[in-house]
Each structure stands twice: as structure tokens, then as C-alpha cells.
Design a protein that fits this description.
With 99 residues, the protein is mainly β. The protein has no helices and eight strands. The protein has a four-stranded antiparallel sheet with strand order 1-6-3-2, with no helix packed on it. A four-stranded antiparallel sheet has the order 5-4-7-8, with no helix packed on it. The chain is globular.
């Protein structure tokens, strides 16, 4: 079971997808994002070829700041992308897994 954990219920002023930390990582990294409105939101991870490798969240989220620890122990070293999407916002960031 994969889930995101709310780390603050303070309503952010805007959508924001933060750079993962640490980056590069081995084998885990933290991904954090802000949602200012309640809405259906997805956060997915893709490999360098654009294949979806993980769905972190695809659910209705209330406003707040969320964080997730991504575990890359089952994946090979390389460049990955994580993408936050909803009806009003879409942003992607790069992360590097080094084993």
C-alpha cells in the first residue's frame, strides 16, 4: 500500500511541487508538494523512456502540504521523473537514483 502523508493542514497559497531530497538518492528520497484546493490529484513516477513505474497518489486530496518517501530499491540506477497533475496544475521534476 502506497500513500502520501499530510504534513500540514495549513492551506498553501499555490500549487507547488518541490525538488526531491536528497537528490541523487539511494535508495529512498522524499517528495513534497502543496495543494491549495480540494481536488483530484495524481503524483506519478516515470522512467527515462516515459513508462509509468509508480503511482504515488491518484485520489481526491484536501488542501495542505503532503510528503512521500519514494523507495527506489526495486529500480535500476538512472534518471526518473515525478509528475504532479490535476485540473489546474501540472509540473514535473527530475530525480537521480544511484546504486
Amino acid at each position: 500500500l502506497i500513500s502520501v502523508e499530510p504534513i500540514s493542514y495549513t492551506v498553501p497559497h499555490k500549487f507547488n511541487l518541490y525538488q526531491n531530497y536528497p537528490n541523487p538518492f539511494n535508495p529512498t528520497t522524499n517528495i513534497k508538494f502543496d495543494i491549495p484546493k480540494a481536488m483530484n490529484t495524481s503524483l506519478k513516477v516515470y522512467d527515462i523512456l516515459g513508462r509509468e513505474i509508480s503511482v504515488i497518489v491518484n485520489d481526491f486530496l484536501i488542501p495542505g502540504t503532503y510528503a512521500f518517501d519514494f523507495d527506489g530499491s526495486n529500480y535500476s540506477s538512472g534518471l526518473y521523473f515525478y509528475v504532479l497533475r490535476n485540473d489546474e496544475f501540472s509540473e514535473s521534476k527530475k530525480m537521480i537514483l544511484i546504486k
